[in-house]
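Duplicate of #3305? Posting structure anyway:
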């Protein structure tokens, strides 16, 4: 099988929507693909692939003698302990955080996410299972690893990894998000360039060595990347053949003993040491089992064939009526879940701009009926809004439609505008999101809201 056949197979599969693919050996990139309008030189949000970096930080901290994975976690948080702690809390070790086996029974993410201090909220939980005996996926367990790094090093997780991992590897662009108590989020929110993740995959393939320099011990990585616990709910699941039911230290263990970093909506970095191969995939929205099935079928067969692939296909969307007139008005919006207060359409340099006024930010989306437009707006990533790059495609056939690709994330936003006299109906939809809902918003022209074509910003 070849790389090009893999790309075509992904395109045919309804459960796989990829944007980037990079195949690498220990020392070189073998093949890569990026789907327009995405690029290799923009940040990409990792979602839960972030968790693996918390694990790497723990390994490095252990190498430095700052901690051991058999330390009990309560020693690091005496001031945050509840008055009546659960009996199993004092038994939780760092290794139990690493293996998602702290003792919680259910996924408690929703309840903890809403709290103002994630450390205190985690420690206040009930732990009905003896630590180390029961797997339950927990983003806040990963966040506790970030907090421990700060306790032992007096550095945030971001600062620690910059110093001991990223900067020595020539990675300088890392963007993180913060928890409510202003710690680096340990379980989500990291963004890097795609090729920087390839560097990490090469570090793993080389057992902790990058360009001749050891950055993390081989012993830790060998423990981290082999099965430490079984995901009991995933055993013998027919839809989990390639994902597997094993878990290491913030690594998922896949079929055949390969291991992976795994993030929401189909973000993947699969490490295959026996084949001297890593496969890095970013997705608009892919189901992990479907994606892995194609990776195994097309990319893991011997020999690996790079092949050629023309990634220059056009993104869909051409104006059916490029002479359409957009009402150059400002509209007051009804209450909505986007925190939008008003929108305004103006002419700008022969094209148009949509001005979106929120409570905290004013975003400007440029669009044209003669081709795509690019720019930057504030938009949600995992936890917070960041200024990030977009590409906009506009069409107008009775309804103005703007398709906005937030190319640092999987998010694709569709704005539809139906104009009727001095009113507008805005329909907002997004392909995937943990935080935003599709919705319809009404707008009403504001007094003196009709502006001339020459109005500028």
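Output from current build:
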């Amino acid at each position: 099988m070849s790389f090009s056949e893999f790309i075509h197979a992904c395109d045919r599969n309804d459960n796989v929507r990829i944007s980037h693919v990079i195949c690498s050996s220990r020392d070189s990139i073998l093949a890569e693909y990026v789907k327009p309008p995405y690029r290799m030189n923009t940040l990409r949000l990792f979602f839960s692939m972030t968790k693996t970096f918390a694990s790497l930080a723990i390994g490095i901290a252990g190498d430095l003698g700052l901690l051991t994975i058999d330390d009990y976690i309560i020693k690091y948080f005496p001031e945050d302990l509840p008055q009546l702690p659960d009996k199993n809390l004092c038994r939780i070790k760092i290794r139990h955080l690493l293996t998602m086996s702290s003792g919680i029974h259910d996924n408690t993410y929703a309840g903890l996410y809403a709290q103002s201090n994630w450390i205190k909220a985690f420690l206040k939980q009930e732990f009905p299972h003896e630590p180390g005996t029961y797997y339950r996926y927990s983003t806040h367990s990963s966040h506790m690893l970030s907090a421990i790094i700060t306790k032992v090093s007096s550095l945030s997780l971001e600062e620690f990894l910059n110093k001991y991992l990223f900067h020595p590897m020539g990675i300088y662009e890392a963007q993180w998000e913060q928890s409510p108590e202003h710690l680096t989020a340990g379980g989500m929110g990291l963004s890097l360039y795609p090729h920087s993740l390839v560097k990490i995959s090469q570090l793993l393939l080389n057992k902790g060595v990058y360009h001749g320099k050891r950055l993390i011990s081989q012993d830790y990585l060998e423990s981290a990347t082999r099965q430490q616990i079984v995901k009991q709910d995933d055993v013998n699941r027919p839809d989990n053949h390639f994902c597997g039911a094993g878990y290491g230290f913030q690594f998922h263990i896949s079929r055949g003993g390969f291991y992976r970093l795994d993030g929401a909506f189909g973000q993947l970095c699969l490490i295959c040491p026996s084949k001297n191969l890593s496969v890095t995939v970013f997705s608009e929205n892919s189901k992990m089992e479907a994606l892995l099935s194609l990776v195994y079928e097309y990319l893991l067969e011997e020999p690996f064939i790079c092949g050629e692939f023309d990634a220059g296909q056009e993104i869909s969307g051409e104006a059916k009526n490029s002479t359409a007139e957009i009402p150059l008005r400002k509209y007051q919006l009804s209450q909505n879940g986007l925190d939008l207060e008003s929108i305004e359409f103006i002419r700008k340099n022969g094209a148009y701009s949509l001005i979106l006024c929120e409570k905290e930010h004013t975003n400007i989306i440029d669009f044209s009926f003669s081709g795509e437009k690019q720019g930057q707006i504030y938009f949600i990533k995992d936890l917070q809004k960041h200024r990030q790059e977009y590409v906009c495609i506009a069409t107008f056939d009775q309804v103005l439609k703007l398709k906005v690709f937030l190319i640092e994330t999987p998010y694709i936003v569709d704005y539809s505008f139906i104009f009727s006299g001095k009113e507008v109906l805005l329909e907002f939809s997004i392909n995937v999101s943990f935080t935003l809902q599709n919705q319809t918003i009404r707008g009403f022209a504001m007094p003196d809201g009709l502006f001339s074509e020459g109005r500028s910003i």
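Confirmed duplicate; merging threads. The domain at 3-298 is CATH 3.40.710.10 (Beta-lactamase). The chain is about 20% helix and 25% strand.
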